[in-house]
Write a structure and sequence with these properties.
Order of helices and strands: EEEEEEEHHHHHHHHHHHHHHHHH
Bound molecules: s-citryldethia Coenzyme A
Structural class: mainly alpha
Number of strands: 7
CATH architecture: Orthogonal Bundle
Largest sheet: 3 strands, antiparallel
CATH class: Mainly Alpha
Strand content: 5-15%
Strand order of the largest sheet: 5-6-7
Distance between the termini: 62 Å
Helix content: 40-55%
């Protein structure tokens, strides 16, 4: 294909110097080539053909997507074209959830219906509460949540019919609705407190706070500043294109597993400290540093590779994560209500140094979404084990949007990467008595 006006060909010319052969491969979407177009490059006709080698998919687009746009160099994040700053300022989590899932902002009628449907799916089968007793009191909440979501799949066998759009939408509503309930139940069981069940007249976030923190009162009224702060945090965590856990959701979903089972896998990926578990790791790091005067010594440890500055760095953002900037502002609003978290001073000093020192600047290490979020969660009264769960609740929306987009993409099929084999060539079995 070429651009007639400028006469340039929209192709890549490849010369294989091993054979002297030349190939032309089409350039798509401005700057990608189909990896399969490399397969024609062979030395001998019997060869398998050329592959691209890309550990951790550092330079591989494995899907087209219209859900989330990130410009890592400019620190831009947009859900379905809407800037994250505007959504955090003007929208609500369920409205953003509808946008991410459906691709357009809802009309008032559509939003009311979605809020109603989510509200009326917040209960879980009572057998799910029996599952809680299978865990030790001090079991990590993410371990509980991963198990609970997988267990929930057994209550909805019809969720396996992933090709039926109406059925997908019901399961999506169920998962968005039930994640806060399961999270609150996990927290209450961890604390040895009686379960508090969903209240339909409360907002999504207020209902979650009610199920978590209502103790000994008929009516729990969350502070509106704190309720709004959590809703903003949910908006900021809703999706982030092809991150590790979204990729996991897509890969499991590509085998046509039901969305509950696929999401258990995505949550397991998010649990990792390099991914969504980083917000918990940040708080543990700040507690370990303990005082601003210990920051220089810790920074030296990072430079000597004895420490990792959790909450810093990103595979895509090579500038300030736009979410971190919003979270930092939200933290100040929360601390006006809850009192200032003393760990904030340590975090601010770490950031001040990291934004100045060449070790960090040369590696494009800036605060990411996890650096300040934990300080807010702690101020809201959450234990650190709940922090990754607070990431998983809103990310449910992103995982499901990516999952459904994968199912509707005619180019997609079961994910099955290739490998470069580096093991031993064929050899004959040796009975144990003959082994040296
Ligand atoms: C999330 O992908 C997403 O979109 C994820 C996410 C989402 O919304 O889904 O944004 C959420 O997971 C945010 C990231 C949370 N993780 C952390 O905060 C953990 C700490 N950060 C890192 O481990 C790291 O920065 C990653 C995992 C986030 C990114 O790793 P990369 O892209 O593989 O980068 P790298 O590990 O190759 O690092 C490049 C260099 C290395 O130095 P050199 O060996 O080249 O000298 O930077 C160094 C690394 O050692 N480095 C760090 C560092 N992060 C990278 N050094 C110290 N502290 C860090 N945090």
């Amino acid at each position: 294909m070429s651009d007639e006006s400028s006469g340039t060909r929209n192709t890549l010319s490849i010369r294989d110097n091993r054979t002297g052969k030349e190939y032309e491969v089409e350039v798509l979407d401005g700057d990608v080539i189909r990896a399969m177009d490399l397969r024609q490059i062979k030395v001998d006709d019997g060869d398998f053909g050329m592959m691209s080698y890309d550990p951790a998919f550092g330079n591989t687009a494995f899907t087209r997507s219209s859900v989330t746009f990130i410009d890592g160099a400019k620190g831009i994040l947009e859900y379905r074209g809407y800037p994250i700053e505007q959504l955090a300022e003007q929208s609500s989590f369920l409205e953003v959830a509808y946008l991410i899932l459906k691709g357009e902002l809802p009309t008032q009628t559509e939003l009311d219906q979605f809020v109603h449907d989510v509200t009326y799916h917040t209960y879980v089968h009572e057998n799910m509460t029996d599952l809680l007793d299978a865990f030790r009191y001090d079991a990590h909440s993410m371990g509980r949540m991963i198990s609970s979501i997988a267990a929930l799949s057994t209550f909805y066998p019809e969720a396996k019919d992933v090709d039926d759009p109406a059925n997908r939408w019901i399961q999506i509503n169920r998962l968005v609705a039930k994640m806060p309930t399961l999270a609150a139940f996990a927290y209450r069981h961890h604390r040895g407190l009686p379960l508090v069940y969903p209240e339909n007249e409360l907002s999504y976030t207020a209902n979650f706070l009610n199920m978590l923190f209502r103790i000994g009162v008929k009516e729990y009224k969350p502070n509106p500043v704190l309720e709004r702060a959590l809703d903003v945090l949910f908006i900021l965590h809703a999706d982030h294109e092809q991150n590790c856990s979204a990729t996991t959701m897509r890969v499991i979903g590509s085998a046509q597993a039901d969305p509950f089972s696929a999401m258990a896998g995505a949550m397991a990926a998010l649990y990792g400290p390099l991914h969504g578990g980083a917000n918990e790791a940040v708080l543990r790091m700040l507690h370990r540093i303990g005082d601003v005067k210990n920051v220089p010594q810790f920074i030296d440890g990072v430079k000597n590779r004895e420490e990792r500055l959790m909450g810093f760095g990103h595979r895509v953002y090579k500038s300030y994560d736009p979410r971190a900037a919003i979270i930092k502002r939200t933290a100040e609003e929360v601390f006006e209500v809850t009192g200032r978290n003393p760990l904030l001073d340590i975090a601010l000093e770490l950031e001040r140094i990291a934004l100045e020192e060449d070790f960090f600047v040369s590696r494009n290490l800036y605060p990411n979404v996890d650096f300040y979020s934990g300080l807010i969660y702690q101020a809201l009264g959450f234990p650190v084990e709940m922090f990754p769960v607070l990431f998983a609740i809103p990310r449910t929306v992103g995982w499901l949007a990516q999952w459904e987009e994968m199912l509707m993409d005619d180019e997609q099929r079961i994910a099955r990467p290739r490998q470069v084999f580096t093991g031993p060539s064929r050899r004959e079995f040796v009975p144990v008595e003959e082994r040296g």
